Amino acid sequence: MKIGIVCYPTFGGSGVVATELGKALAEKGHQVHFITYSPPVRLNFLSGNLFYHEVSVSDYPLFEYPPYELVLASKLVDVVKYEKLDLLHVHYAIPHASAAYMAKQILASQGIHVPFITTLHGTDITLVGKDPSFEPVITFAINQSDAVTAVSESLKEDTYKNFPSVKKEIQVIPNFICLDDYKFESSKCQKKMYAPNGERLLIHVSNFRKVKRVEDVLRIFDKVRKVIPAKLVLIGDGPERGNIEKLCRELDTCSDIRSLGKIVNPEQILPIADLFLLPSETESFGLAALEAMASKVPVISTNSGGLPEVNVNGFSGFMSNVGDIDEMANNAISILQDEVILDQFRANAYRQAEKFDITKILPMYEELYKAVLKKSKIMMK
């Protein structure tokens, strides 16, 4: 198949999943074309089956905000026509699904029929989508998609709840990781860079937005380090960075915290951690938690959104109510203070991650593509 993938090319989960999906499809022999405004951060190579098409937006004085959706739709028309794509797979509802619909209609007027699949990832439904000004467009784009997927049952339920006029059937295809990327070759020397005296090492990865509750990460860590010698590594960046720096000074924990900023391949550092903290307000799935588990790192998380579909309480880690930093800290200590218990949780975390290996998830997307193409051909007759 020739597949066009539209995604945000950033460090966010939707872009990461879309990129890794495209790379895996290319390895299976499919031809994959990424169509976006810059190369996806995880697209670290181009093979004979991987292509990138830049969506270039001109900055005209007339426009206060460049019309990206229109330019994207035009680019989709161009790529579909000249690369002879079989279908489009757009990740994130805004503005990708509406742009795909527009491109589909333009192509249909020229006698070219191409179906498009929309994958919902989270904030396009649970945050941005709650803005009433977006509701009619999102509802329409979802209903007009040839197929719709969501990365968790929780997100599927949120979609129907937030958009009561959505009538399209939504299929859940969970996020995934490629276990082969997690080699566990991190040496003790590398861990000593962050925990020089054998301290326990805790890690948090996010985009540092309010919904991630990174301040809770620091407060949990502060409680843990008062019982067990520990260090904290923060990976990522975002609008809450200033508040985090202020809080670590108030708690007097700055000397025990290392901020590494954005990292393209977190699997290179995750294996040296002893515990992963994810106290988010909500997560549509919790890809960061899954990446930690694939690195044999147990997870302390909230029980919100799609996290219960990823993290198994008392097995791969522990879950608590949002904001319950005392329980999260106590659960962290219970894992970290006993080496035997920690080793068991490490093994369990990896066993849980195995359920989401790409070898299990990729066939679900391939079957969906085949079904959509088959249905599209029937409708064209």
Structural description of this entry:
By secondary structure, this protein is an alpha/beta fold. It has two domains: 2-176 and 358-380, Glycogen Phosphorylase B (Rossmann fold); 179-354, Rossmann fold, CATH 3.40.50. Helices cover 41% and strands 17% of the residues. It is built from 13 helices and 13 strands. The strands form two sheets. Strands 3-2-1-4-5-6-7 form a seven-stranded parallel beta sheet, with helices on both faces. α3 (96-108) links the parallel β4 (87-91) and β5 (116-120). α8 runs parallel beside α9 and α10 (287-294) packs across α12 (339-354). The protein is elongated.
Task: Provide a short characterization of the protein structure.
It contains 13 helices and 13 strands. With 381 residues, it is an alpha/beta fold.
